[in-house]
């Protein structure tokens, strides 16, 4: 049981709020909202001053956001691409933030504080744009102030219920600090499970870029299918050698040309639910053991293996596809994989 005296809360409460919000804004999966709620209760008990806690929370958020914004200015799109490769959810949030910025402008910096997942992605994304630092921090200050005020007032408004909760917790030998630590651990566990589920939409074994290079050398190499959506092809205007472009929802065109091939390498770009569906479709069509290429196309290129440019004629369709691509890509992420093909006796 963790217990702190009342004078310690008055002395260090604002500093703890600052540190908690800063850590959360830097991307470490520790929730900041529960502590703000309990800080609101402490404000009602006159153990903390509202303006001190609000200032600490806002300063912590602004400090964390400034780190990400500066990183975006320094590293540009490389940082965003690196973040997008961390997991499926991050990639989706990056595209969502881009779409919102294109539609509403820098005002999304303030609104994003109330949208789970966007609060961390938006600052580095804004750093890669032409939005000035002054405009960014003006909107950011407005957003973090409104965000911190909302949760502090929420704690004050529901003071009676939170106090009853604390009494019940103490009755079982715990303290409010124990509850906060337990919530942080549960939240961390949830994020880890979510990350694992998103990265493992269906069971995958793997093959290294070196292994894939060996597979491409025999007289009958595997067929490589590129099923990435058009926005992804525009962002990454290169591909693996000897690629055949296919649409994600029209795999029938592969059948005739795949009968003679023992193995098929393909690139798919769905979210985790679509990946499950596509995996089943591939199995129904004869694709058996599914193996992911470790590191995907990026790892292949980093090893120094050859890549082919995307044909220039596709660039001419970019203007026509931009609007529809933005909508279609809002729920898509990149997953590159390899699967083996089983010939049907009926063919």
From TrEMBL:
Residue ranges of every copy of the Rhodanese domain listed in the record: 224-309
Positions of the UniProt region annotated as Disordered: 309-331
Biased composition (Basic and acidic residues): 309-323
Record keywords, A-Z: Cell membrane, Membrane, Transmembrane, Transmembrane helix
Database matches in InterPro entries: DedA_domain, Rhodanese-like_dom, Rhodanese-like_dom_sf, VTT_dom
Transmembrane segments: 12-43, 49-71, 100-121, 133-153, 174-193
Location within or outside the cell: Cell membrane
Keyword Transmembrane attributed: yes
Membrane topology: Multi-pass membrane protein
Record-level GO cellular component terms: plasma membrane
Pfam families recorded: Rhodanese, VTT_dom
UniProt protein name: Rhodanese domain-containing protein
Organism for this UniProt entry: Paraburkholderia humisilvae
